[in-house]
Amino acid sequence: MKTEQGIKIQLKQTFPLTIKRLGINGEGVGYFKKQVVFVPGALPGEEVVVEATKINPKFAEAKIKKIRVKSPHRVQPPCPFYDQCGGCQLQHLQYGQQLKEKRDIIIQSLERHTKLKVDNLDIRQTIGMENPWGYRNKSSFQVAQKNGKVLAGLYGMNSHQLIDIEHCAVQHSQTNEAVTTVKTILEDLQIPIYNEKTRKGIVRTIVARVGVETGELQVVLITAQKELPKKESIIGEIQQRLPKVKSIVQNINGEKTSLIFGEETLALAGEEFIQETLGDLQFELSARTFFQLNPIQTVKLYDEVKKAADLTGKEKVLDAYCGVGTIGLWLADQAAEVRGMDVIPESIDDAKKNAKRHGFTNTKYVPGKAEEVLPKWVKKGWKPDVIVVDPPRTGLDNQLLQTILQVKPEKLIYVSCNPSTLAKDIQTLSSKYDVKYIQPVDMFPHTAHVECISQLILKKGN
Prior knowledge:
By secondary structure, the protein is an alpha/beta fold. It contains ten helices and 21 strands. The strands form four sheets. It has a seven-stranded mixed beta sheet with strand order 8-7-6-9-10-11-12, with helices on one face. The chain has a seven-stranded mixed beta sheet with strand order 17-16-15-18-19-21-20, sandwiched between helices. Strand 7 (149-155) and strand 8 (162-164) form a beta hairpin. It starts with 13 loop residues before the first strand and ends with a strand.
């Protein structure tokens, strides 16, 4: 007799499934004979018939064959490339419901990775956008050539087919216009387009970035070599057809790599950077500067950090992954001192410039890892009252977690872009910290990305 546990799903097997929740990548999650099944495109509450496409020892993946009972929140995705592109995962889910599901993803992660009583936690409603379309201020579209026509877009899901995207629904209208125009110019001037297989040709990628508040536009051509044929004609055409372009830049990347930018950047025309405004702060964005992709929501995110920090003007604040200084500068007018560090030296140079430009004299920025720099400062008698962390998707470095537990600031503000690593880090910190509340903010509507701010307070007696 086969036991219930012994029955394994077979490849290509079709079976009915009820979708219980959304997974971390925006896929539907159901259980068939106690086995977890992930179904892209399926929504919580739906009853579907699926076909198994991949079998792993711990789970199966499947595709929808038929929807028997449809979610009341299912909508028609407005983007014609949605099914092929993979850049968005949730356009088929009504926006208000996306916000609820994103909060639920955080709850699931806390239930899975922490021993906390999640029901007792203050997990707030997700802060969304009034208009959740056209929000991305930067696009990086690969280019290719097919029958003499220049294509620009993204590679399809799990394929090496470039999808020619005429209009991306989540990109700012100016970046869409810039890419389409530059694509036409390259075609008109018959500029050789890079071919990944033969590794011949010149232009690999078109990057366009707009200052959402300033309207300034930057176009970056990423080329496989330094020589750019008909360079003056390309510049002239871009300037004529896109009068808002403030900065035209060339970046050289001859490597066989999935990284977009190479090391060498040349200014071709106009300024080397464009200006962007966030609240009262101005920033200069050069081609390779990291900057938040959704400035409208970034202001909301940073305002929530400010609320959580709740400064009185007396606190020493540490911005542990400071980048170009954005979060620290947002808090600097209410802090006694802000110090920050980052592993990228160029970001530290930018942070210093940004602080100086805004007239802040209570800031200090150094290159290095927080877990190495902070203990040295503490030894010299500088101990932060508030630490703000905004780590990459991998979460906090273990050494930094241990450093925080030793230094014991009164307050820790954790800005997270990955609920799983946030939950694991909270579990480690829970020996000395209480989670006061978690505030999700939707930085990337229609995708499975979830950002949130957690306020952690040192437990009494520590």
